[in-house]
Amino acid sequence: MEFDQLDLQKALKILDALPQTIKELLSKHEIKKEELEPTLKEEPTPNKDPQTTPTPCK
């Protein structure tokens, strides 16, 4: 498979831009994650008090 110079330059330009694109996507994701943080917090499940009186057998 042969590539001409123009194809290689296009590919290099795309590859050079990728790290910046990834950083932009990650920064957008971080902002969204921080905005959602209050709604994502798990509320602790209430602990049941241990049963002190035995259940009678039937």
Structure overview:
With 58 residues, this protein is mainly alpha-helical. The chain has one helix spanning 5-40. The radius of gyration is 29 Å and the shape is rod-shaped. The mean pLDDT is 77.
Short description:
62% of the residues lie in helices and 0% in strands.
Give the rounded overall mean pLDDT: 77
Work out the helix count: 1
Helical proportion?
A: 55-70%
Major beta sheet, specifics? none
Spatial shape: rod-shaped
Rg is 29 Å
Distance between the termini: 82 Å
**DSSP E strands, number:** 0
What order do the helices and strands follow?
Answer: H
Unreliably modeled segments: none
How much of the polypeptide forms β-strand, as a percent range? under 5%
Structural class: mainly alpha
Topology:
Layout: H1 5-40
Could you name the key traits of this structure?
rod-shaped, Replication initiation protein, 0% strand, mainly alpha, 58 residues
